[in-house]
Amino acid sequence: MKASSVNSFTKTIACPSSNILLSLHFQALSPEIMALLSHHLAACDFCCAEIPLLAHYQKPVKGEGKPPDIPINLRILAESLLGKSGSKRKKSVKFGLSLTEA
Description:
4 helices, 53% helix
């Protein structure tokens, strides 16, 4: 069986961004832009497949991606340990020593 020449299923330079496709899904674009996008979608399988996936997108809640604060006791311990190693490192640099020379 001979393989047919199939275009790769990827986003191209001509494809609109995911944000624009998401705006198209929510019909938050001007009629002119929506008309241009409909012409693109008629020829682009990738963007046609991306729109249903974007329909499930939910904006993250404010502060949702923020890592939790380190407990104060652990922070004090870490700063004291890092402060001690930092002062030793500064002294070795001051005297021109490195770990390989000591």
